[in-house]
Design a protein that fits this description.
2 domains; three-stranded antiparallel beta sheet; alpha+beta; Butyryl-CoA Dehydrogenase, subunit A, domain 3; 7 strands; two-stranded antiparallel ribbon
């Protein structure tokens, strides 16, 4: 049985359990006074909007150069993929694998995973609640690694600054990539996971 079926609402601010008042259009939390909703208002719409924006910015994030490495007055900008290829070329396979997973696989999986989760809920696709919850928790777990590339670039820009001898500059691709990461994180936060359980009536997994 769901909490909403028992007439219980949870406050999004302080997590206090409140008895649902059927006669009130707007209910406030008995502890902190915040508005209490059975489900986050417009959760799916906001999540779709953030996801579409992130998907659009994902193109320049991979096409535009993410940083430029200058050595002895010469340098060439590099994208995420070209940076991975350069690392492989120099034999740095572990670092290349980390950059590829954190900068390409993780954002791609988050975009596709959140999109599939939203689509399965809205279209009532044959995914069990357990599968949806597993997907949602995995998306939340890998989200913390999405900023790895941006942290590395920020550290390199701050540390490697020796004038014309050697320097590293961040490019527009880094801004686009950071925007994608932030937007996907906001999309995961704005999604109300309780909507998963609202779609279990047609699922085979009811335990």
């Amino acid at each position: 049985m769901r909490a909403i079926d028992a007439g219980i609402l949870i406050c999004a601010e302080c997590h206090e359990l409140n008895k649902q008042d059927a006669d009130s259009d707007e209910q406030v939390c008995t502890r902190c006074g915040a508005l209490v909703h059975a489900r986050r208002p417009n959760s799916l719409v906001r999540t779709w909007a953030l996801l579409f924006t992130a998907a659009i910015l994902y193109i320049p994030a991979n096409v535009l150069p993410i940083m430029t490495i200058n050595s002895l007055g010469k340098g060439a900008p590099s994208t995420i993929m070209s940076g991975v290829i350069d690392l492989v070329h120099y034999g740095m396979f572990p670092i290349a694998a980390v950059v590829f997973i954190a900068s390409i696989l993780v954002p791609t999986f988050k975009l596709v995973g959140i999109g599939l989760l939203l689509f399965s809920i809205q279209r009532r696709q044959p995914l069990s609640a357990r599968q949806r919850i597993w997907m949602y928790r995995f998306i939340e777990f890998i989200g913390r690694w999405s900023m790895l590339d941006i942290f590395v670039i920020a550290i390199l820009v701050a540390v490697v600054n020796f004038g014309r001898l050697a320097s590293i500059e961040a490019n527009l691709g880094a801004i686009a990539f950071a925007s994608v990461v932030i937007l996907t994180m906001l999309a995961a936060v704005s999604f109300d996971p309780r909507l998963i359980w609202d779609n279990t009536e047609s699922d085979d997994d009811h335990d």
